[in-house]
Write a structure and sequence with these properties.
The structure holds two protein chains of two kinds. Helices cover 69% and strands 0% of the residues of chain A. Chain A is mainly α. Chain A folds into two domains: 83 residues, Orthogonal Bundle (Rna Polymerase Sigma Factor, Chain: A), CATH 1.10.1740.10; 88 residues, Arc Repressor Mutant, subunit A. The relative contact order of chain A is 0.12. Classes of the chains: A mainly alpha, B mainly alpha.
Chain lengths: 193, 76
């Protein structure tokens, strides 16, 4: 393709506009990206580093984003990959222990802890604090936590989570199932000690 | 055969996720209709999902927002 002298500047100007728009749309999602990061990693400082690395990489490789597709998912795929790469897997011990606790465990523990079986379930959930969730999540092994954060907090579909984490949908579902049980065990720990 | 409440406990996550077959869902609902022990725990599960979803973390600092904006390609 040959280009006339006036087309190149026009193309460059168009590209600059596309880039500015991309950057603005990406920045508008920063609060949501940070929220996911904050749930994924142990500390605020780590979450801030991770979000900065994510945006640095996103701005460098903005051309590989296909306009009209899900930008939030695209950013979070970068974020989760960076998080995996940065040797966060110090505790790379996937939780393969048989889990004694079933899905009723947390409710049972909360009920026991007050010795109150009049059972107003509204009041049972009120025995939890938001801090309990954050503390409990940070104790869930990463592979499980990633899926819970994306699906149960980030509202991604199984298919989106599978794509973001680059794992099969069946693995998303099995990790989610087990991860929620681990989370309940950790919440029981956080709430009742 | 599991005891019926243990079986119901196993069906709770897929029930709340809406991925049971119709027959399984009917089976769960038939048990729940007559078992307040399980019904309470199912209601709690739904509330817990919501509670986790809205779990608050402090919003990002304004300084981080500025750092992110500074990563943008400078305009020529």
């Amino acid at each position: 393709m040959s280009e006339t002298g006036s087309e190149t500047p026009r193309r460059l100007a168009q590209e600059a506009r596309d880039r500015v728009r991309f950057e603005e749309e990406a920045l508008a999602l920063a609060d949501q990206v940070y929220r996911v990061a904050r749930h994924l990693v142990g500390s605020k400082e780590e979450a801030e580093d991770l979000v900065q690395e994510t945006y640095a990489r996103a701005f460098r490789s903005w051309r590989s984003f296909t306009p009209g597709t899900n930008l939030r998912a695209w950013l979070l795929r970068i974020l989760t990959n960076l998080n995996i790469d940065r040797g966060r897997r110090k505790q790379r011990t996937p939780d393969t222990q048989p889990l004694e606790e079933g899905d009723y465990f947390l409710y049972n523990r909360l009920e026991e802890s007050t010795g109150d079986s009049t059972n107003d379930e509204e009041r049972v959930v009120e025995r939890l604090s938001q801090d309990d969730v954050v503390t409990a999540l940070s104790a869930v092994p990463h592979d499980f936590r990633d899926v819970i954060v994306l699906v149960d907090i980030g509202d991604f579909s199984y298919a989106d989570a599978a794509q973001i984490l680059d794992i099969p949908i069946g693995t998303v579902m099995s990790r989610l199932h087990r991860g929620r049980r681990i989370l309940k065990r950790e919440m029981a720990e956080a709430a009742t000690g | 055969m599991l005891d019926p409440c243990a079986h119901c406990e196993e069906m709770m996550q897929p029930y709340v996720d809406g991925v049971l077959t119709e027959a399984e869902r009917d089976e769960a609902e038939a048990h729940l209709a007559g078992c307040s022990y399980c019904a309470r725990r199912y209601r709690f599960e739904e509330e817990l999902r919501h509670f986790v979803k809205i779990s608050a973390v402090a919003p990002m600092d304004a300084s981080l927002k500025q750092k992110l904006a500074a990563l943008r390609t400078p305009l020529e």
